[in-house]
């Protein structure tokens, strides 16, 4: 978005003007770039956590229209939300499912990750009446969900009983973003060995996917048939290869100025009086705070965009508001829009730069965006 041509925000019914602007066409183009970089592999687009804060159903529809193989979510509720939103492509529940939830998953044709050995016997008993497609998760080094290689042999009898429903095998990289690829290569070797063990037992799933966004960008796909990108779909990255691919950030966070006042030198702003005006200036108050997901520790550290320039966030972020300092000669009035999260990855208020400021990752910032924020979607 060109900040110099932002239109004033219309008041929302609840009286607050704060919106996340999501450009679905950029997400579709990112999908095409990732697919091309992966050698044309099929894509499971990860849209868990409300599509990383971007809006699960509209993003899911855009990806479905763009030819994604399927969508991946964290839990049953997220999968049901997509189905209720009219999405028909395959939906993979990455976090697994308790046996008693299989009827609900089967009714909506959800695909389920098998994340441990504890439910294998129950699945084998229930699936004839409540069929679902399964993806067997292997713990190759992440240390969370999945069958350990040492458990695989004992599980083979149950897995053979489930063979008709096992559509895929998956793993998860722990260090794909690390320049040192030693551990990632070790995980790949473990995954390949487990696949060979399954093949020897007569289990030949048609889908194999260990690679996430960074694995694709760094060519760590090996014999994967499918890919599971998340953050890269939304144009965000933490490694140089992402910028080289031309990924387009899809989200901007825009807030309306609620109040402007001139402040004398020595005036203080916000809780704890952490900002003292060094000279006369203007303070613009924006209706966005940590209850909206804008991190409290961005106070006195972040920048925002206004009419092609950037200005500092000053004082502490409160629950519903933040404050910005501007020179007295900058024309600004209530209702003017300011950009808190920019779609320019190199801007001081771009998500990647703000994440670096906080020592975190961009998706922590987008995932934190509360559902009370209005989301506007553009083609």
Structural notes for this entry:
The protein is α/β, with parallel strands linked by helices and 379 residues long. Helix content is 28%, strand content 22%. It contains twelve helices and 18 strands. The chain has helices spanning 24-37, 48-52, 56-65, 76-84, 102-107, 120-126, 149-161, 182-200, 213-217, 240-244, 351-358, 362-367; strands at residues 18-23, 42-46, 70-73, 91-93, 111-114, 133-137, 166-170, 207-209, 226-227, 251-263, 268-269, 275-276, 281-286, 303-306, 309-314, 322-326, 337-341, 374-378. Strands 1, 10, 13, 14, 15, 16, 17 and 18 form an eight-stranded mixed β-sheet that branches. It has an eight-stranded parallel β-sheet with strand order 8-7-6-5-4-3-2-9. Strands 11-12 form a two-stranded antiparallel sheet. Helix 1 packs across helix 3 (56-65) and helix 7 (149-161) packs parallel to helix 8 (182-200). It is elongated. The model has no long low-confidence stretch (mean pLDDT 94).
């Amino acid at each position: 978005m060109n900040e110099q041509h932002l239109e004033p925000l219309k008041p929302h019914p609840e009286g607050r003007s704060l919106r996340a602007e999501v450009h679905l066409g950029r997400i579709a183009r990112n999908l095409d770039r990732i697919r091309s970089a992966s050698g044309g592999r099929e894509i499971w687009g990860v849209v868990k956590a409300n599509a990383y804060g971007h809006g699960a159903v509209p993003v899911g529809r855009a990806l479905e229209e763009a030819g994604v193989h399927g969508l991946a979510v964290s839990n049953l509720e997220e999968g049901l939300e997509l189905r209720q939103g009219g999405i028909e492509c395959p939906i993979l529940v990455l976090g697994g499912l308790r046996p008693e939830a299989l009827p609900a998953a089967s009714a909506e044709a959800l695909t389920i990750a098998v994340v441990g050995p504890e439910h294998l016997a129950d699945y084998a008993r229930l699936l004839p009446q409540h069929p679902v497609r399964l993806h067997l998760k292997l713990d190759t080094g992440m240390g969370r969900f999945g069958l350990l290689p040492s458990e695989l042999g004992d599980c083979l009898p149950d897995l053979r009983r489930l063979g008709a429903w096992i559509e895929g095998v998956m793993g998860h990289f722990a260090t794909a973003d690390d320049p040192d690829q030693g551990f990632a290569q070790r995980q790949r070797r473990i995954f390949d060995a487990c696949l060979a063990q399954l093949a020897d037992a007569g289990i030949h799933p048609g889908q194999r996917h260990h690679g996430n966004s960074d694995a694709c960008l760094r060519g760590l796909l090996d014999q994967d048939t499918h890919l599971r990108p998340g953050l890269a779909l939304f144009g965000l990255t933490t490694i140089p290869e992402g910028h080289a691919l031309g990924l387009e950030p899809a989200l901007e966070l825009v807030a309306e100025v609620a109040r402007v006042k001139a402040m004398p030198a020595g005036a203080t702003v916000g809780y704890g009086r952490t900002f003292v005006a060094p000279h006369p200036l203007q303070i613009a108050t924006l209706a966005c705070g940590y209850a909206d997901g804008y991190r409290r520790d961005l106070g006195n550290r972040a920048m925002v965009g206004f009419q092609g320039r950037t200005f500092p966030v000053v004082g502490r972020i409160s629950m519903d508001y933040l404050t910005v300092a501007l020179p007295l000669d900058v024309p600004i009035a209530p209702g003017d829009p300011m950009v808190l999260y920019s779609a320019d990855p190199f801007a001081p208020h771009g998500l990647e730069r703000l994440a670096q400021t906080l020592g975190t990752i961009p998706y922590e910032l987008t995932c934190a965006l509360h559902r009370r924020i209005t989301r506007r979607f553009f083609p």
